[in-house]
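Figure 6 in text form: structure in, sequence out.
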């Protein structure tokens, strides 16, 4: 059985779901998700002999959502996970992240190898600082309608996504009915982020109406601004991580993604996948799950759980 509580860490209050006893495993969700996104992993990893903690990340759900956009940098979000480990009375943990939670996990391993002795990233490969700021590079390449760009101006995406939260969550999590999922990352003039879909498609078999209702209820209360503010720090994160340019993630690492995930099927994603070992030289595996898309831990929990548990058992000795 999992339980929930609120823990003060890094100057904010974090709502967490947790279960089990043993070495600590922290699960970091992405956008637009919640600790609930790990509902299939928490009990399985706990049953394998670990203390599993999944927070609503900064700006999400029942966790604090600072009003200042600058409070959502990679140092703030990693700081939350460091503070959470400390608040739990631990000094070591395995960190796992999906979507935006993956950059948090990768950077946590990069910034604090003394704490995070193993790292797993889902869907998003480790960070490559690249030749310049992400938004600058998009502009210079002639791209003006990528969703990162649409999310930049405070209030614009919030107004669209919050107009009908049930519709938003059905479209974003439930699929957008596109033959080419990559197309969903580009915003057509006048159509907004959700313009590609009607929201009338049946839900995929991994997402129930009850699941959707829970996400909808929480986002209706909390709104989308906190999560969108993560995107508003993309260029700032590039500037802040300059001291780590070229640094390696030397801990044991694991990468998992759905083979149909648009993040890794894009040209940039394929390159990041091919170059993964240059950033994480102790990468133990790239698990690409056929038939799965972006929400891999919800879509294919059995495979994801098996991989994470086997990885944790190799690098965190469960207590007898």
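Output sequence:
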């Amino acid at each position: 059985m999992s339980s929930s509580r609120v823990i003060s860490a890094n100057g904010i209050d974090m709502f967490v779901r947790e279960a089990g006893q043993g070495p600590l495993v922290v699960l970091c969700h992405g956008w637009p998700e919640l600790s609930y996104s790990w509902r299939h992993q928490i009990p399985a990893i706990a049953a394998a002999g670990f203390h599993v903690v999944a927070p609503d990340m900064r700006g999400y759900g029942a966790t604090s959502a600072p009003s200042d956009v600058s409070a959502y940098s990679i140092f703030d979000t990693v700081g939350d996970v460091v503070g959470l480990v400390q608040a739990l009375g631990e000094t070591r943990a395995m960190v796992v992240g999906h979507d935006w939670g993956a950059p948090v996990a990768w950077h946590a391993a990069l910034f604090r190898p003394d704490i995070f002795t193993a790292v797993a990233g889902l869907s998003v490969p480790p960070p490559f600082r690249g030749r310049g700021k992400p938004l600058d590079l998009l502009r210079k390449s002639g791209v003006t309608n990528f969703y990162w760009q649409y999310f930049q101006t405070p209030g614009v995406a919030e107004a669209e996504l919050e107009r009908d939260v049930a519709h938003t969550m059905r479209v974003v999590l439930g699929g957008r009915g596109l033959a080419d999922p990559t197309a969903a990352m580009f915003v057509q003039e006048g159509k907004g982020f959700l313009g590609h879909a009607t929201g009338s498609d049946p839900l995929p078999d991994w997402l129930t109406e009850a699941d959707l209702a829970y996400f909808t209820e929480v986002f209706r209360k909390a709104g989308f601004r906190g999560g969108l503010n993560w995107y508003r720090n993309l260029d700032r994160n590039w500037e802040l991580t300059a001291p780590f340019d070229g640094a390696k993630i030397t801990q044991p690492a694991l990468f998992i993604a759905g083979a149909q995930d648009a993040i890794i099927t894009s040209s940039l994603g394929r390159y990041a996948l091919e170059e993964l070992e240059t950033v994480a030289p102790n990468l133990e595996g790239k698990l690409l799950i056929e038939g799965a898309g972006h929400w891999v831990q919800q879509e294919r929990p059995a495979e994801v759980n098996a991989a994470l548990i086997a990885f944790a058992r190799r690098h965190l000795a469960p207590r007898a």
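Caption detail: Residues 3-315 form a domain with the Rossmann fold fold (CATH 3.40.50.1820).
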